[in-house]
Amino acid sequence: MTGRSRSEVEAEIKETLGLVPHFFSQIPDDLLDHEWEIFKKIELGETLIPNKYKELIGIALHSETKCRYCTLFHTEAAKLFGATDEEIQEAVHYAKNSLGWSAYLNGIREDYDDFEQELGQIKDYLASKG
Fold first, then answer.
1. Among candidates 88, 86, 90, 92, which has minimal Cα distance to 62?
2. For 24-74, how does the pLDDT look when each residue is reduced to its tens digit (9 = 90+)?
């Protein structure tokens, strides 16, 4: 934490985003600088995962958590970072498909060790095919 005052942090937020979103105003003074730095790095900064892909992950994730705030945020951010409507739909469809398999595997109580062993065999087979 850099220990900047609330007004200094809010000035930077406004310079970066054009306004200080209301949800930042609810963060306690002693945590605002820290939370903004994390937000700025993870949500806005370039990390190992390109921003468009991070936002598509966020859309998929929040299609499950059903947080309409996060779904809206990540959808709009994905578009800002170049995601197409088709890519957004694919991310949501991927989440739906993955969640369905999770429900199925857990519901039938698939043996985890067997699953892991078979997955290793599949991985080896696919790797050998080139």
1. 92
2. 999 999 999 999 999 999 999 999 999 999 999 999 999 999 999 999 999
